[in-house]
Amino acid sequence: MVSSFLSSTQSPLANFFFSLFLVGTTSFIGASISTPSTSFSTIHMTNNKDGAEALLNWKSTLDNCSWSLLSSWHDDNPCSFSGVACDEFGAITNLSLSHLGLRGTLDGLDFSHLTSVVSFELANNSIYGFIPSSIGNLSKLDYLDLCFNELSGDIPPSLGMLKSLHYLYLYANNLSGHIPQEIGQLDFLSRLDFSRNKFIGPIPISLGNLSNLIHLYLWENQLSGTIPASLGKLGNLTELSIYHNYISGSIPREIGDLKNLKILYIWQNGLSGPIPSEIWRLTSLITLDLAINNLNGSIPSSIGNLISLSSLHLQNNELSGPIPSEIGRLTSLQSLLFSFNNMTGQIPASIGSLANLTELDLGNNKFFGSLPSEFNKLTQLTFLQLHDNDLEGELPEDVCLGRSLQNFTISNNHFTGPIPTSLKNCSTLIRLRLDKNQLIGNITDAFEIYPHLNYMDLSHNHLRGELSWKWEHCHNLMSLRISNNNLFGAIPVIFGRMAQLQLLDLSSNNLSGEIPREMGNLLMLLELDLSSNAITGNVPIEIGLLPILMHLNLASNNLNGSIPVLLGSCKSLLSLNLSRNKFRRSIPPKIGNIQSLEILDLSYNILSEHIPRELAILRYLQILNISHNSLSGYIPHAFHDMLALTSIDVSYNYLEGPLPNVKAFNEAPFEAIKHNKGLCGNVVGLPNCTSVRIKKRNQHARARIIIILIISLLGLLFLSCALIVVVFAIINHCQRRIMKRKNNERVNDLDFMSILSYDGKVFYNRIIEATEGFDSKYYVGEGAYGIVYKAEISEGQTFAIKQTLSSQEDTEVVDFVLFEKEIQALTYIRHRNIVKFYGFCSHPQHCFLVYEYMERGSLRTTLKDDQRAIEFQWDKRISVVRGVADALSYMHHECSPPLIHRDLTSNNILLDRDYEAHVSDFGTARLLRPDSSNWTAIAGTIGYIAPELAYSIVPTEKCDVYSFGVIALETIMGKHPGDHISRECSSSAQAESMMLKDVLDQRLSPSRLGLRDAQDVVLIAKVAFKCLQDDPRLRPTMRQVSRELCFQVPLDMPLSAVSLEQLRDLNVKKFGAFQEMVRFEVFMCLFYLVFNYNDDRLLNIFLVLTKPSQVIIYFHCRASFSMNIIGIVRCL
């Protein structure tokens, strides 16, 4: 076309215009073609510049410390900035600024210049403030991660404009307010994590629109309301975690529509109602955790459908019913936690099929029965808790067969039998609790060394043995409790080397010995409880060096000495209990330095002197008990400032003066302040302090007058007595010289001897020869009036020789003829339970008595020796008590004149080879001179003397009865009964409730007493307390005692239920019952004679003496009467 045009137009002007046209056209076309490229390049250059400017401006708003972290941000090319990525055209697409330590806000970041950004990562920094609403301009954003920052405020609704968003992470900030409904507009969202914030209100229903959602995490917020049923539309959801919120209501059934769900965490909310049955059809579930809610109902058998389940946590709900046996189908299960529910029934044997189980917790339910033997198959267990149920039987022998068990807790059940042998070598153990069961065995052999163990509790079982040295090698052991068992022996010194120990409780055992001084090395110790043992000695002062000790309990032992002053250095002590020991002297004032002390109990000791005023410094003290001591003086006035006190007990002391004006004293019961010297105050039962002061002034005035009169009278009396004594001494001296001269004349003619059936001089020589002149190697012991030796004469006979007087010079015998007659009278006493007395030898060199020799020595030495005491079984002890009663009955009622022992103790009750009792040392005191010191002194031994001898020096048969009561109790208790003798010494609530079984000799295991022996022991205790009546007129005679001990009275309650108070309250009515029993036996004997001899005269006597009801019995039984042979013997 152009060529044709050129050819047709030949003029130069035409050519010029044509050329000009071509140039213009070409320029236009070129301009048209180049314009789009230039425009596109210009736009991107502009955007990059704006983006760089936006980032640099944001950098300038950050804290100064963050600038160095973004040092590469300094020019107009953002693609070179660290953490910034661009596309091929230079547009900013990625901001990866996580983990840089940036600090500042997002307010200075202009999101309108970052519209090309696809991924924005700012996690793990210190970004605070609000999320700007301008973030909605990031229209291409696919990934937003702002987690682990300090963002606060509400989520801006503009987030709903990010239509391309797939991942939204706001985890671990301080965001609050409601979750906006606009989040439900993010159609492509697959992962949403708003966990660990402070969101409130309900879960938005609009979240059910996020059909592409795979993970939904809303845990650890403050969300409330119910779970919206719309969540059931999230068909692609695999993980739903909304635990640790305040969500209530029931679990919607629509959750069962989430067929792809693998993890469901809804624990620690307020959900209620039963678990929907639809949950048990989610066969893809791997983890199901609904713990710590209020869910109820039972677990259905359909639980067996969840064959993929590895973790099932339903603890801390209100579930009931049994564990379905179908649970055995969950073979992939590794963790099963059902604790703290109301589930019942027996543990199914199918649980043994869960071979992969590592955690099993069924504690705090109501399961009963024994553990199935299939438990031995669970060899992978690391965590097993069955505590607080009603389980019984023996523990599985192979509970630690897999050598992987770390936590084993079965406390508070009824398990019996020994500790499983597999536990002995279970070196993986970290925590072991077997407490509050009925396990038996020797603790010394049952356990080995556990290198990882940090907590062990074996308390409240029936374990025995000594504490092992192996505990020292448990280097991580921090808590050790073995209280309320039957441990014995001393506390090993190695316990002082367990430096990591924080809690040690060995209370309520039979431990003895002293507290090792090495215990002061336990610098980490917080609690030490050694109460209710038999520990002796002083409290080591090293205990006061324990810097963080908070609780110290050494009560109910036999500790003595003074309370260590260094205890005042235990600045962290909260409670200090040293009660029921034998501490003496004063309360250390340094205890006032323990500023944190809340409980102080020093009761039932022998503390004296004043209450230190330093105790008033204890501002936090709440409970103070210093009762049953010998404290005197006034209660310090500074106690007025002890406002924290809530309970006090100062009873049974010698305190006087006004009570402090503080609430604890003003509101104290009278029992807490009674039995003092002269307290006064506004408490019911105490006198008013004003009247007490007036009364004291009057008493002082009267006392001065009385003292003057008494001194005058005493002066006159002294002069009169002095004159009488001088006259009497002169007369007495003359009489003694005359008598001594007569006696010397008789003794010079013949050495006085009286040995039954022996020639006196020959027997004397044999005794001297057999004892080698009373050499110490033949020493046996000491009696009431001399030293006892063993003499074996040539005929093979053995005698006990009591050397009484060293020479004739010291003899105080008045008349040798009368003395010989008295000795002869004693030799004729014959009773199986009285030591046979052969005679007496009096010689210028030696004077001695000759008795039958007893192989086993005295009752006291037998009871003191643990080995001999164990051989001294209950039947032998019962026989000894009856034998002593028979002997005293013979002396009091069958001898003429009656014999009074005067000094009956366990030391003069001798035992022969067969443990038959023989009373010795009786009658000899009455043979001494009437004017000798022994005649006017109190007859008897302290601890056995009847109380009336405190005001009367004339002993009676009732004094022997009292001594017998003490010996009877001593025989069954294994030691002197001490304070149990008197009601006044046992008036505390604890003493009144003390059980008989607890004071019996524990070396013979009173709990294992047979029925017959138990009846006899209770009978002996009853009779003993009757004999210990303070009023001698209320005591029975020894004849009554001897007869009552012959009867066997059935127990009306178990031995374990018999208390000392019940026995002590027995009165004359009990003896009335005994007399009624005797009358009944006489009636039966008469009945027997009438029946067998059919004598009309006997029948008339019978009818006169008996009641009509008994006559009816006679005629009713006449055809088939069988008399008990024991009754016949007693009658005859």
UniProtKB/TrEMBL annotation:
One of its GO terms (biological process) is response to other organism. The chain crosses the membrane at residues 12-33, 705-731. It holds the Pfam family LRRNT_2. Keywords: ATP-binding, Glycoprotein, Kinase, Leucine-rich repeat, Membrane, Nucleotide-binding, Phosphoprotein, Receptor, Repeat, Serine/threonine-protein kinase, Signal, Transferase, Transmembrane, Transmembrane helix. InterPro entries: Kinase-like_dom_sf (IPR011009), Leu-rich_rpt (IPR001611), Leu-rich_rpt_typical-subtyp (IPR003591), LRR_dom_sf (IPR032675), LRR_N_plant-typ (IPR013210), LRR_R13L4/SHOC2-like (IPR055414), Plant_RL_S/T_kinase (IPR051716), Prot_kinase_dom (IPR000719). It is a single-pass type I membrane protein. This is non-specific serine/threonine protein kinase. It comes from Eucalyptus globulus (Tasmanian blue gum).
